[in-house]
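sry for the spam today, last one i promise. struct tokens for design, 442 residues
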């Protein structure tokens, strides 16, 4: 009997030691991490498989902590993600450090993988945008939805929606035969053509847009609209309703400013003849309704052949070597939402251009949170706000690792940029809806 008890006790000690060694898995998100982007994919994979993840805000770059599971460990090895197996004592030490009231850290529990959709045509003619690229690289599943699905009511199936590089005003990004993407801003002014001012105008060419003009006109007719601009307005209003009802909305580049502009112009016509067959309303500006928008107000809409959509997009003049923006440091314990959205291993992010590169801070609505800015230019690069029961984030520029991408160029190979701090901001937004709701303290 004594021998049996001795062996049982020895077995329990060994079991305890094994459990102690393999209590949790930590995905460090500081400079130690070999692949920051795929780490988000691991976190999503864990949620998808029914487990939870603790997001350790401001601890080692916003690390992830989850209960030990051999399958999770194997998945980290397969995807090349740096991980650490830590025991209960180390977990307790980390939590004590984070919970110290004098330390700017906090824990947010991620509980359920969000259902993700991209508002985008499936065939974009080589115009994949940054969100699509990083979701594929991180192995995070998503669905495509476009005008038909939105008008059919399919958005209710999803928690998170990204607006692919899109022109919701129905002007096809104003890309004529002399004003194509132009390197998404040339020297950095955020307009096609850059400082050289090649401008817009000329005959519309199908290859200038993700979809041909004819294809969009056919879809508008199929859905019962006389103009593409009217169809896009109806779609934008449905997307705004999605946000108001509790959805999470994310947009980059022209998907951000053109969305608000289209909503504001619901009572007038801002589209020129070459795009819809009739001239814009000469009194369009007086009929703009800023109460309809999410982020912007008091902007001037550009009708006719004028470059760009409005003065929301900051007309910038800055050399590439000086182009960067800084993330704000928020209180993790008090301002939980912006803290989640700005988790990164770097606080200074290199700039990148787009049709909408940066947002004029003078055009932001009260209550909009600026999370990243280029202070010397009075411009916001990364903003967030609430609308109804939902929340939205707008991120200026087209591709964080391609300073001035042009159509026809190959898409960014993210295997060459696995630690991109600019792309991390996108993935923060992907995980944001998975968080257990915490009361906002400010």
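last one done:
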């Amino acid at each position: 009997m004594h021998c049996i008890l001795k062996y049982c006790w020895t077995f329990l000690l060994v079991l305890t030691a094994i459990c102690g060694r393999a209590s949790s898995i930590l995905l460090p998100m500081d400079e130690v991490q070999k692949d920051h982007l795929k780490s988000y994919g691991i976190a999503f994979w864990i949620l998808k498989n029914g487990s939870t993840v603790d997001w350790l805000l401001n601890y080692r770059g916003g690390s992830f902590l989850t209960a030990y599971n051999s399958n999770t460990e194997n998945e980290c090895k397969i995807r090349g993600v740096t991980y650490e197996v830590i025991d209960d004592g180390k977990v307790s030490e980390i939590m004590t450090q984070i919970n110290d009231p004098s330390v700017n850290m906090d824990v947010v529990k991620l509980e359920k993988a969000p259902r993700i959709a991209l508002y985008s045509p499936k065939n974009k003619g080589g115009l994949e945008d940054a969100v699509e690229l990083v979701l594929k690289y991180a192995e995070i599943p998503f669905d495509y939805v476009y005008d038909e699905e939105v008008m059919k009511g399919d958005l209710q199936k999803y928690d998170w929606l990204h607006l692919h590089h899109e022109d919701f005003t129905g002007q096809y990004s104003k890309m004529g035969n002399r004003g194509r993407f132009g390197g998404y801003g040339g020297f950095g002014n955020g307009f096609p053509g850059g400082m050289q001012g090649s401008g817009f105008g000329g005959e519309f060419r199908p290859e200038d847009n993700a979809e041909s003009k004819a294809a969009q006109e056919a879809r508008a007719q199929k859905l019962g609209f006389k103009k593409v601009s009217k169809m896009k307005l109806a779609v934008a209003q449905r997307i705004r309703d999605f946000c108001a009802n509790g959805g999470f909305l994310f947009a980059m580049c022209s998907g951000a400013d053109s969305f608000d502009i289209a909503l504001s112009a619901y009572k007038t016509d801002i589209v020129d003849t070459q795009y819809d067959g009739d001239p814009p309303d000469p009194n369009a500006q007086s009929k703009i309704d800023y109460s309809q928008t999410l982020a912007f107000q008091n902007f001037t809409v550009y009708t006719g052949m004028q470059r760009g959509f409005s003065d929301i997009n900051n007309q910038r003049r800055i050399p590439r070597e000086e182009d960067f923006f800084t993330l704000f440091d928020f209180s993790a314990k008090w301002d939980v939402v912006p803290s989640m959205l700005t988790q990164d291993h770097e606080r200074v992010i290199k700039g990148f251009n787009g049709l909408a590169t940066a947002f004029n801070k003078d055009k932001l609505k009260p209550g909009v949170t600026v999370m990243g800015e280029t202070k010397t230019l009075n411009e916001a690069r990364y903003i967030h706000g609430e609308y109804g029961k939902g929340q939205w984030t707008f991120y200026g520029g087209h591709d964080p690792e391609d300073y001035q991408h042009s159509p026809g160029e190959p898409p960014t190979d993210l295997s060459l940029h696995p630690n991109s701090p600019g792309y991390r901001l996108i993935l923060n937004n992907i995980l944001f809806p998975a968080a257990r709701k915490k009361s906002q303290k400010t």
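The chain has two domains: 2-110, 116-434. ok im logging off now
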